[in-house]
Design a protein that fits this description.
The complex is a heterodimer of chains A (316) and B (482).
Chain A (H helix, E strand, L loop, with lengths): L1 H9 L4 H15 L1 H4 L1 H26 L7 H17 L4 H23 L5 H20 L1 H4 L5 E2 L7 H22 L3 H11 L1 H6 L4 H27 L1 E2 L6 H14 L5 H18 L5 H15 L4 H10 L6
Antiparallel strand pairs in A: 1-2
Helix pairs in contact in A: 2-16, 4-9, 4-12, 4-13, 4-14, 5-6, 5-7, 5-12, 6-12, 9-12, 10-12, 13-14, 14-15
Chain B lengths: L1 E10 L2 E11 L4 E5 L6 H9 L6 E6 L2 E2 L5 H6 L2 E4 L11 H13 L13 H10 L14 H13 L5 E5 L7 H12 L6 E5 L3 H7 L2 E6 L2 E6 L1 H6 L1 H8 L16 E12 L2 E12 L3 E5 L6 H9 L4 E8 L2 E2 L5 H7 L1 E4 L11 H9 L8 H7 L1 H5 L10 H14 L4 E5 L7 H16 L4 E5 L2 H7 L2 E6 L2 E6 L1 H13 L2
Parallel strand pairs in B: 3-8, 3-9, 6-7, 7-8, 13-18, 13-19, 16-17, 17-18
Antiparallel strand pairs in B: 1-2, 1-4, 4-5, 9-10, 11-12, 11-14, 14-15, 19-20
Helix pairs in contact in B: 3-4, 3-5, 4-5, 5-6, 12-15, 15-16, 16-17, 17-18
Classes of the chains: A mainly alpha (316), B alpha/beta (482).
Keywords (chain B): Amino-acid transport, ATP-binding, Nucleotide-binding, Transport
Family (chain B): Belongs to the ABC transporter superfamily.
GO molecular function (chain B): ATP binding; ATP hydrolysis activity; branched-chain amino acid transmembrane transporter activity
Chain lengths: 316, 482
């Protein structure tokens, strides 16, 4: 009996699900051979993917619907930009970015987690827009509409891409392990039935807050990567549409299991680039894709692929 | 072990608990009983810290816990199961129990290793009889198994006080037996409080019994004393009602008959082989405690719930496989529990909507004549009416369909005694107008005062049928075991 239990715990997905994941990694790495614009897009997808993975963890596993992730992304970007302008070494700047994002999450989270459901959505949205306004209006610090240019720094695109993909995979792997620990399972339990887990003696406030800090830090890190990648930071990246985009990526790919978010980010980035190359109405296309996904693949496209190609259910 | 001192709890204007005190000694088995709305669940919620008392204090092992959040109270050794079993439905059975264990050990935040089924988890699963189902995702458990899981999650925490909120509600047959035995076999060291509508079981379980009524303790004592207590008998059967004693109305032609009716939810069978008959012009009362299948029976008759077996004959025609709207068209009308007013409509609009396309003896004008109270309130939004008035609207809506038979599901639920009398008056009016009514009711005395014939439903079966004057004794026997 006990042997049976542990075997089941250890068994991950099937071998074919593993292959599917390697296929996804392959897609992320393939543009290295192409270079140029495809590589640029792939790096963009990997970094947005990291932010989407963080949101997927928060939304799909923690049950916290945040529409303010752009603030963490932007804060990470500005932190690394300003730190580099101030002459700090790159390593330190990259460390400060997630810390700054986590600090913002702590300050806002203390208020956000006094409420539930739709109010969390509204509060995160409001805080996100406040940060956007600050970035937009505080021209002395951020350059306002002119943005902040990081032209002085040049990192080789291949190196940047490899690091971005490496961090992304490490995050997915690490977080998937985290989800199997008592802490991770408790988060899932909070999402499914908060009253029940509280009645068992778990102070859920701190669990949600810590999860929020963790995902904010990851998003901040993704933001710092995007700043280096684009060599430019615009306050408009902090606008709530960026948060919505991340959510679309997560919903397209599937909010559980984290691989879906990676897939969603990759799909969104390339579909958007491809469609917008021949029409300005790319939003219509992405919108239809989302409608179809929500109607016919409720759990997202990645679980659909896993079932169709991977033989069996994802072990999210 | 657990002491409650003068606890009151108000929800807005409603006083759910009005100065409740009780003390439970270590290892005691205590049952808390009382009719619907007596405040039993509220009392449990206050004890567990889910609700903050408006007044009064709660002590657990000598330590004041009132005002603490429920997770702290839980960590101090208070375990509970919920009325509606609600585990973590997407997690496996063993994961549910393992999480409860980690929570009790204060290790929920542990990141060191994977969550694993430790021996304690395994032991508890065996104790409650779920060892074979350890790998199943919780949502796939049967109704009874979910209760077993709920109990396992409480037990693995090794609480010093365990609150069980209606653990048998909605269970029948073997599942009921199994869980009943499981609770009776709990560690005698543990202090256990039980809220349960099945009085027979509650009185068997308990060493002491507390009786709540309208938020107050009206009696406390050993099971036998409670059983014999006239006050307790009165709140279950009611008093001050004249039982209908007139000669039996001459039986009109049959309107409704069910034969061997079986129905339930999914795989769970609630009704097994129900046979009942309603004749033209009769008021038939369907009695039974909570969770005995009254609402399920009305739903099955109306077609809201598919029949598993058996047949329903309405006006001589087999309707058991017809969808609800077809049965409604034939003249079957249901007044649902909870009244269900439409938002934004006033009384007259509610009635006009119901009367749409109808021609017959009942018209909006006729209804307003029979219910003068509604005529006075015809312009009021229906949601703003009192409970009794809403019930009138609900009944009037059903009448406007000019039905051949009105099914009423607990029309007095949640109403004050005065309102209950109003509802009884309405039913008498209907009877005088020649309507045929099948009335499912918890308020025994009210039902007996209007009914021509009575059925008692228990665990999904008709266990008694007869005239109202004989029903009182039968009810006492069935409900309290007197």
């Amino acid at each position: 009996m006990m042997a049976g239990l542990s075997r089941e715990v250890r068994a991950g997905g099937t071998a074919r699900q593993g292959l599917l994941r390697w296929g996804l990694v392959g897609l992320l790495l393939l543009p290295l051979a192409l270079g140029g614009y495809p590589l640029y897009l792939a790096t963009e997808a990997a970094l947005l993917g990291l932010a989407a993975v963080a949101l997927s963890l928060l939304l799909g596993h923690g049950g916290v619907p945040s529409l303010g992730q752009a603030a963490f992304l932007g804060l990470g970007a500005y932190t690394v930009g300003l730190a580099l302008k101030a002459g700090l070494p790159l390593g330190l700047a990259l460390l400060l970015a997630p810390l700054a994002a986590a600090l913002l999450a702590l300050l806002t989270g203390l208020l956000v987690f006094r409420t539930h459901g739709i109010f969390i959505l509204m509060l995160t949205l409001a805080f996100g827009q406040m940060v956007y306004s600050a970035a937009h209006k505080w021209t002395g610090l951020t350059g306002g509409d002119d943005g902040l240019s990081l032209s002085g720094l040049s990192i080789h695109p291949v190196l940047l891409h490899l690091v971005a993909v490496g961090v992304l995979l490490a995050a997915v792997g690490g977080l998937r392990v985290l989800l199997q620990t008592p802490y991770g399972k408790t988060l899932e339990a909070i999402r499914q039935n908060e009253e029940k887990i509280r009645s068992l003696g778990v102070p859920t406030f701190y669990y949600k807050l810590s999860l929020y800090l963790l995902t904010a830090a990851l998003t901040g890190l993704a933001g710092s990567g995007l700043a280096l990648h684009r060599s430019f930071i615009s306050p408009h990246d902090l606008f709530w549409l960026t948060s919505a985009t991340l959510m679309v990526m997560v919903l397209l790919g599937g909010s559980r299991g984290l691989w879906g978010a990676v897939f969603g980010a990759l799909l969104y980035t390339f579909v958007q680039a491809w469609v917008s190359s021949f029409t300005d109405l790319w939003g219509l296309f992405v919108g239809s894709l989302l409608v179809l996904t929500v109607l016919f693949a409720r759990e997202g496209l990645w679980p659909l692929l896993e079932r169709r190609l991977g033989g069996g259910r994802g072990d999210a | 072990m657990l002491r409650v001192e003068q606890v009151s709890k108000a929800f807005g204007g409603l006083l759910a608990l009005a100065g409740v005190s009780l003390e439970v000694t270590p290892g005691e088995r205590r049952a808390v009983i009382g009719p619907n709305g007596a405040g039993k669940s509220t009392l449990f919620k206050v004890m567990a810290g889910e609700l903050r008392p408006s007044q009064g204090r709660v002590f657990l092992q000598g330590r004041e816990v009132s005002g603490m959040p429920q997770e702290r109270v839980a960590r101090l050794g208070l375990g509970r199961t919920f009325q509606r079993s609600n585990a973590f439905s997407e997690l496996r059975v063993w994961e549910n129990v393992a999480l409860a264990q980690k929570a009790a050990q204060g290790q929920s935040a542990s990141l060191g290793q994977r969550l694993t089924p430790e021996p304690g988890v395994q032991r508890v699963l065996e104790q409650v009889g779920l060892a074979e189902r350890a790998h199943v995702v919780a949502s796939q458990l049967s109704h009874g198994e979910k209760r077993q899981l709920e109990i396992a999650m409480a037990l693995v925490q090794n609480p010093s006080v365990l609150l069980l909120d209606e653990p048998l509600a909605g269970l029948s047959g073997a599942e009921r037996e199994r869980i009943g035995e499981l609770i009776l076999g709990l560690d005698p060291q543990m202090t256990v409080l039980l809220v349960e509508h099945d009085l027979e079981y509650a009185l068997r379980f308990a060493q002491r019994v507390t009786v709540l009524h309208y938020g107050q303790v009206i009696a406390e004592g050993g099971p036998e004393a409670i059983r014999q207590n006239p006050q307790v008998q009165e709140i279950y059967v009611g008093a001050g009602w004249a039982v209908e004693t007139g000669a039996a109305t001459t039986q009109g032609p049959e309107v409704l008959r069910s034969e061997g009716l079986c129905a339930g939810y999914g795989a769970m069978q609630v009704l097994s082989g129900v046979r009942l008959e309603v004749a033209q012009g009769e008021v038939v009362a369907l009695l039974g405690r909570n969770g005995m299948g009254k609402t399920t029976l009305l739903s099955a008759l109306m077609g809201l719930l598919p029949l598993q077996e058996g047949e329903v004959f309405f006006l001589g025609q087999g309707v058991g496989r017809l969808p609800p709207h077809r049965r409604a068209a034939l003249g079957l009308a249901l007044v649902p529990q909870g009244r269900r007013m439409f938002d934004g409509l006033n009384v007259e609009e509610e009635l006009q909507m119901a009367a749409w396309g109808q021609r017959g003896r009942w018209t909006v004008e006729r209804v307003l004549e029979v219910f003068p109270r509604l005529a006075e309130r015809r312009r009021s939004p229906s949601r703003a009416l009192s409970g009794g008035e809403q019930q009138m609207v609900a009944i009037a809506r059903a009448l406007l369909r000019n039905p051949r038979l009105v099914l009423m599901d607990e029309p007095t639920e949640g109403l004050s005694p005065l309102m209950v009398r109003q509802v009884a008056e309405i039913i008498r009016t209907l009877k005088a107008e020649g309507e045929t009514v099948l009335l499912a009711e918890q308020n025994v005395q009210m039902a007996l005062s209007v009914a021509d014939r009575v059925y008692i439903l228990e665990h999904g079966q008709v266990v008694w049928e007869g005239r109202p004057q004989e029903a009182s004794q039968a009810v006492l026997h069935r409900y309290l075991g007197v």
